[in-house]
Design a protein that fits this description.
The protein contains eight helices and 16 strands. The N and C termini lie far apart (57 Å).
């Protein structure tokens, strides 16, 4: 059965998130089996789907260090954090204060703080191929000077998570009946990563301000670590019911993004999700957004189109689409560039 025919034959709504074990992936046969599991997870409903992965290869000590670094940074006075406001740097690197963005037009703001970084080597190279490549668009990160080990903790986790992203890109290619290396020359080499802090949400449920409003991510897929024991992430299923994505120690949540949805002609649909932290305690998470290089043209893949399922999308470059979505998100922000709430 072809990929398109399979898409027609499935359609049950999910009520839990499947977990895929990445531990066995040394042979092509093992990777093909994993790809089939990913395909099943992504096509489990006619609406939105996620899956989780275990044995992903990110060392526990990397996670412990970055979690400690985030707790230390977000505990600083607001005045100190605002010295690293992302509008002080380039391309949204740095600190995001509370209510700095509003991703859901129906809401009034997103109740989280973030610290955003892009690609950077832990030890600068004498010959930096990324910075020498003019098409790479590598922007400098902003770092707090008063927190020893903060930069190292973020960069170590960043590179470990990016390794997971490279492996998943190849598994997605196999899941789409494509050569395993199909996305290799399209993979964004400098994805954005956020360390996020969600304070407890105490306002009424209908006040239009939650941790982050309902949305789909902009890139191909997101690798999300979420703090165990604190429920906040919810995913919308095909029956428009919010399903808790309960944090499971040792796992990462993988959310499908808009670019992969466009590439697959909606055979793999974007994951609509939100975060609502009513746990009574602070909650931390780390999303890395794996996408395509800005110049890459995204249009429905041949394996995802048929006479019965014609292309739903035209051609768009990755950079054009993502920048448009980012601009819309911050344009709806209820705060000024100084982090002050707008009147």
């Amino acid at each position: 059965m072809s990929l398109v025919e399979t898409a027609v034959s499935v359609g049950r709504a999910f009520d839990s998130i499947p977990i895929i074990d990445l531990g066995c992936s040394s042979t092509h046969e093992e990777r093909a089996a994993l790809a089939r599991q990913i395909r099943d997870a992504c096509m489990n409903s006619l609406s939105n789907e996620s899956f989780a992965v275990k044995n992903h290869g990110i060392p526990d000590e990397n996670i412990d260090r970055i979690l400690s670094a985030m707790k230390a940074f977000f505990s600083l006075p607001v005045e100190e954090k605002m010295k690293l406001h992302h509008r002080q740097g380039a391309h949204y690197r740095g600190f995001e204060p509370l209510l700095d963005s509003n991703i859901d037009p129906a809401n009034r703001g997103d109740l989280y703080e973030g610290f955003v970084i892009g690609w950077e080597e832990l030890v600068p190279k004498d010959v930096d191929e990324e910075k020498a490549d003019k098409s790479a668009l590598v922007f400098p990160n902003l770092w707090p000077s008063e927190l020893p080990g903060f930069r190292e903790a973020f960069i170590d986790y960043y590179h470990a998570a990016f390794g997971v992203g490279r492996d998943l890109h190849r598994l997605f290619a196999l899941a789409l009946d494509l050569p395993e290396t199909y996305f290799d020359d399209k993979l964004k080499r400098y994805p954005i990563m956020r360390g996020l802090h969600y304070p407890p949400q105490t306002g009424p449920e209908d006040d239009g301000i939650i941790g982050i409003g309902a949305h789909s991510d902009f890139e191909c897929f997101t690798i999300l670590w979420q703090e165990p024991g604190i429920q906040a992430l919810q995913i919308l299923n095909s029956e428009n019911k919010w399903i808790n994505a309960t944090p499971i120690p040792g796992t990462l949540v993988i959310n499908i993004g808009d670019l992969l949805s466009r590439w697959t002609n909606d055979i793999f649909r974007s994951t609509v999700h939100r975060a609502v932290n009513r746990s009574g305690v602070r909650r931390y998470s780390i999303p890395m957004f794996i996408g395509a290089n800005p110049h890459v043209e995204v249009e429905p893949l041949p394996t995802c189109v048929s006479p019965e399922r014609p292309a739903k999308y035209g051609t768009v470059t990755s950079g054009e689409y993502v920048q448009k979505r980012i601009h819309e998100t911050y344009q709806r922000s209820p705060t000024t560039s100084n982090g002050v709430t707008k009147a």
